[in-house]
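---------- Forwarded message ----------

FYI, see the Starvation-inducible DNA-binding protein record below. Original note from H. follows.
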Amino acid sequence: MATKKSKKSVIDIGIGVADREEIARGLSMLLADSYSLYLMTHNFHWNVKGPMFNTLHVMFMAQYTEQWNALDLIAERIRALDFPAPGTYREFQKLSSIKEVAGVPKAVEMIRLLVAAQEATARTARSVLPIADKANDQPTLDLLTQRLDVHEKTAWMLRSMLEE
């Protein structure tokens, strides 16, 4: 019995393969930063203690839940551009601009680390904007704009907790 070789479908969405590849590469870095941020936030949710415990525990849960849901949106956009989404710790570590936190920091240090990670993720998202704009890729521009809004707002809220 002969087996048919499957044909790879041709993507014709008005964005050339080179542009799609460049956008997917940028989105892969955003996915890696987003996953690293998710993991950091969830870790801090589990391990926070001190006078701000309840406030931070609840806040971190809202943040990591939002972040978890965003991961799918980013990965699915990469797939819609016809590229594989990274999905291993090794790939994320290689692509992420956010470094893993060793040990369990104090609550205030957790907030500082999360501000830096939120800002790093925003910078990564912002770096993909001109690439998507040049390719006239509105779905990616929309996704990036939404992610920037979340990361910048979350960084501001966290920074506000650090003021005297």
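H. also flagged this: The radius of gyration is 18 Å.
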